[in-house]
Amino acid sequence: MLTLAPDEILLDQRAASKDEAIALLASRLEAAALVEPGYLAGMQAREAQHATYLGNGIAIPHGTTETRHLVRQTGVRVAQFPQGVEWDDGQKAYLVIAIAAKSDEHLGILRQLTRVLGDEAATERLRTTRDVTEIIRVLSGEGDPLVTGATGRTDGQRELAALAHFPALSLDELLLGAGARAKSLGWLDTQALATLLGAAPLHLGQGVWLARTAAGQAGWLLATPAQPLVTHGHEVNALLLLCANGRGHEAELGRLVELTGAGRLGELARHGLTLLQGEAAPAASQSDGHRATFTIVNPHGLHARPGAMLVKVAKEYEAEIRVANLDGSGEEVNAKSLMKVIGLGVKCGHRLAFRAEGADAGAALEGLGEAIAAGLGEGAGA
């Protein structure tokens, strides 16, 4: 969870260039003893490799892996530039978030930021507000109307995860795998896991089953079997595990009821938790498109540079390309959006499932596979 204090945020700043903006924030990181002298050079080197502009007026400068040893403690510093700072290719940043991370902790920070800042209305308020506490509420994902909207839901209230193609031979084994995954994520303790395994899942229809337990962390986990299963005469295409804590799950529960009433539950196994988040499923076509799954070999996952390279490769093709992190939430996102791709929170060893539709769909997946195997600009296994 990203936590901020008022003295970590600079309001109403001005900078003549992105170099000046980065230098300002680097000096704040150093003054707070988060980094050692020399980290600024690493931030500048990262920009030279690839600009760290995310979109929606947000930039996230950070150091290279070679300067990670200069980080004493993981942290961020935030600067608001109401007049904007020219970044690259005509892009203007209004909120600049400098990141210092000792290891892969920055992926969690990036994921949280991209989820919170994906709302254009929210980023506009962040650009113009004079209230530091408002920026803290939004960046921390707390229950603020600016982020939550009419549903009262925030990504800070519950988490999402997926267990795709689990080699289960029965519904009980699929439930065991889902429970073990939730426990490894810190959602459940041993007692809650035992309670979960002691209750039979409920068949909602169309091969979708629901299991529920009280938990220390609210979350939804979607588990799918590697091979078709049948139990009590019903197919098992997907198991939804609801870890309940407070009211953080209510929006998705309401959406689940809507899908049940509309006869669309079966789409969950195909489109994942995207449907529970209220997002429309990708448009249907005569074919199911081309599909391929690749494993990320970059030691530090998809941070800004390799993420940008993946998006660059995807944009070279006309095909519509969507991607899901099978070891994350499992939701499909637009592979041509840097903000969406980084928001998947991809670490080394995670599997990315691509689906492409269009005349050059096959070539697109082949090109993406080659780029991923080559390390997305960082060298295979670099």
How would you describe this structure to a colleague?
The protein is an alpha/beta fold and 382 residues long. The protein has three domains: 6-140, Mannitol-specific EII, Chain A, CATH 3.40.930.10; 159-276, 3-Layer(aba) Sandwich (Mannitol-specific EII, Chain A), CATH 3.40.930.10; 291-374, Histidine-containing Protein, Chain: A (2-Layer Sandwich), CATH 3.30.1340.10. The protein contains 13 helices and 16 strands. It has helices at residues 18-31, 39-49, 105-116, 120-128, 132-139, 145-148, 171-184, 190-197, 250-261, 268-271, 304-315, 338-342, 361-373; strands at 9-10, 53-55, 58-59, 75-86, 92-100, 159-166, 202-205, 208-214, 219-225, 229-231, 234-236, 238-244, 290-295, 320-325, 332-334, 351-357. Strands 1-4-5-3-2 form a five-stranded mixed beta sheet. Strands 6-9-12-8-7 form a five-stranded mixed beta sheet, with helices on one face. A hairpin with a 2-residue loop joins strand 7 and strand 8 (208-214). Mean pLDDT is 81; it is low at 143-156 and 280-288. Residues 2-142 form the PTS EIIA type-2 domain. Its main location: cytoplasm.
